[in-house]
């Protein structure tokens, strides 16, 4: 029997690119934080995918674009590998923005463990809100 292949891609449709949506996230979004990551999320209207996500690293902490881009790649990869935690446990559509708050270059293992904790914390908050 062939094994079911899980969708662990992070395609174009899943990326949050709209300036309007990103601005709305900063003004109306709710946030969760597990250092060095911060998740800003907002429930959105019907869209083609359930969750659209973006990542950002402040220029204030990392002056060199090379370092910012490396951290963004690590964030996207850890989200891509662990997005099943959110996709399988939530109803509704959301916009996510992941911020890196640390001041030094992280290792992938650290980012991935914090990403798992952050997504589980998000699930707990959403289930708490829907059950209340």
Automatic annotation (TrEMBL):
Gene name of the encoded protein: rnpA
Broad enzyme group: hydrolase
An annotated Gene Ontology molecular function: ribonuclease P activity
NCBIfam families: rnpA
UniProt xrefs under SUPFAM superfamilies: Ribosomal protein S5 domain 2-like (SSF54211)
Name of the protein in question: Ribonuclease P protein component
PANTHER family: RIBONUCLEASE P PROTEIN COMPONENT
Protein family per UniProt: Belongs to the RnpA family.
EC number assigned by the record: 3.1.26.5
InterPro entries documented for this protein: Ribosomal_Su5_D2-typ_SF (IPR020568), Ribsml_uS5_D2-typ_fold_subgr (IPR014721), RNase_P (IPR000100), RNase_P_CS (IPR020539)
Catalysed reaction equations from the record: Endonucleolytic cleavage of RNA, removing 5'-extranucleotides from tRNA precursor
């Amino acid at each position: 029997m062939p094994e079911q292949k899980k969708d662990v891609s992070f395609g174009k449709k899943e990326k949050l690119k709209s300036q309007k949506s990103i601005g709305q996230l900063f003004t109306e979004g709710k946030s969760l934080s597990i250092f060095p990551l911060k998740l800003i999320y907002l429930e959105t209207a019907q869209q083609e995918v359930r969750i659209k996500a973006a990542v950002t690293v402040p220029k204030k902490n990392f002056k060199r674009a090379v370092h910012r881009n490396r951290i963004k790649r690590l964030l996207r990869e850890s989200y891509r590998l662990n997005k099943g935690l959110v996709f399988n446990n939530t109803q509704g559509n959301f916009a996510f923005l992941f911020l890196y708050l640390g001041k030094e270059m992280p290792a992938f293992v650290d980012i991935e463990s914090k990403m798992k904790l952050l997504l589980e914390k998000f699930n707990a908050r959403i289930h708490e809100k829907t059950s209340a």
